[in-house]
Specification:
This protein is an alpha+beta fold and 268 residues long. It folds into 2 domains: 72 residues, Phosphorylase Kinase, domain 1; 187 residues, Aminoglycoside 3'-phosphotransferase, Chain: A, domain 2, CATH 3.90.1200.10. It is built from 10 helices and 10 strands. The protein has a 5-stranded antiparallel sheet with strand order 1-2-3-5-4, with helices on both faces. Strands 6-8-9 form a 3-stranded antiparallel sheet, covered by helices on one side. Strand 4 and strand 5 form a beta hairpin. Helix 5 packs parallel to helix 9 and helix 7 crosses helix 9. It is globular.
Length: 268
């Protein structure tokens, strides 16, 4: 963390913030508090301007080319699974999906629309890499389902998708401001990619129509089919990611959730 001390000075108390990249830190000096990250996307500035993430305070470039961003470190809490049912979650996700500013910026950064075929190709390539690991029948059944329906879930409208709408990434500040944080995996894709995982994970199925109305869309069979397809594909992708990192307990937990989803919807 010498680079942080070089930027901030020795009076700041710096502690790791966790996360998958290991490149995020909290810094505190008296009443001043910052959240720092190395090599955040330039996309962060637009997210801050839109009020979707905590305020971006400053950006600095190091001699080696790395970029350090500092955001306002807010008091607050991650949403619980129960709090994910609140209409404000639907409203913020709708704002993100309908933002032309976010879409224009991500496209300028070189992100091209992600197609179902590309999603499936990535999953199958990862499965080849994991070939030496004991295969699980649920994963093969899920891939067969994705292959069977890949042509049916094409959708012309693409938006900015967060791609990890887990409740841990939703922050409610002590000032009652809701944020969606950790945008490292953002993509341009079908909005059903975000909707599928969120609804399958947190919203009882009998409440889906009401939730989607709060989000601002009229539910229909094609939307539900796309949501299911992306929920299965994302579940598989997360399982593969954890397995590649040797995090087999977390992979097993997600495997159980995937199996339950597939049984409930008669995919297996």
């Amino acid at each position: 963390m010498n680079w942080l001390e070089h930027i901030l000075g020795s009076n700041w108390k710096i502690t790791p913030a966790g996360g998958s990249t290991g490149e995020a830190y909290y810094a505190q000096n008296g009443g001043k508090r910052l959240f720092l990250k190395r090599n955040s996307s330039p996309f962060l500035a637009v997210l801050s301007a839109e009020g979707i993430v905590p305020k971006l305070m400053w950006t600095k470039r190091l001699e080696n080319g790395d970029v350090i961003t500092a955001q306002d470190w807010l008091e607050g809490h991650e949403l619980s699974a129960e709090e994910m049912k609140h209409p404000r979650v639907a409203a913020l996700l709708s704002k993100i999906h309908h933002s032309s500013e976010l879409l224009d910026m991500l496209m300028r950064l070189g992100k091209h629309p992600l197609t179902p075929s590309e999603v499936l190709t990535d999953i199958k390539e990862n499965q080849k890499i994991l070939g030496q690991v004991e295969p699980r029948i649920e994963m093969h059944q899920a891939i067969q389902y994705l292959e069977k329906h890949v042509q049916e879930v094409e959708f012309a409208r693409h938006v900015v998708c967060h791609c990890d709408t887990n409740h841990n990434n939703w922050l409610l500040s002590s000032r009652d401001q809701l944020y969606l944080i950790d945008w490292d995996n953002a993509m341009v894709a079908d909005p059903a990619l975000d909707l599928g995982m969120l609804l399958y994970s947190y919203i009882p199925q009998e409440d889906w129509n009401r939730w989607l109305n709060q989000y601002g869309v009229e539910p229909n069979a094609h939307l539900f089919n796309r949501m299911t397809w992306y929920a299965v594909s994302q579940s598989l992708a997360f399982i593969q990611w954890h397995m590649m990192r040797g995090e087999y307990q977390e992979a097993s937990i997600r495997m159980i959730k995937l199996r339950d989803m597939m049984v409930h919807h008669e995919i297996i």
